[in-house]
């Protein structure tokens, strides 16, 4: 979660120092003490956490929501996480630097895992539009490659 939504909902935001995330013994000793219910990280950091068999629903029962961004979420990571946290909800998001927040999301369910060879990045927020443009800044047809352009209030000023 981000700072503003956490505080407006009465939550507590715990940011772990680099010394903790770099030391797995300390990390896995710290996680249960946080009583976290949401996890936000890159998929590759989750892969590292999944190397520890104790990283599971039994040891972290309050942890129920996982949000991933910053790189591709693979089937293997999502499936391993579903196995460790069978009651958890996994979300894949997309939000490049210029938007400052995630502008798309999708819950990665068993059906999504079965239906897509590569996991989707989700549906845009209601106030956001994403288009693909060619070199002439014209929208490309479905299935064609183009540059991703995000429109909406989440885009930082000065970004075109």
From TrEMBL:
InterPro entries: AMP-dep_synth/lig_dom, ANL_N_sf. Residues 1-158 form the AMP-dependent synthetase/ligase domain. Pfam families: AMP-binding. This is AMP-binding protein. It comes from Ligilactobacillus salivarius.
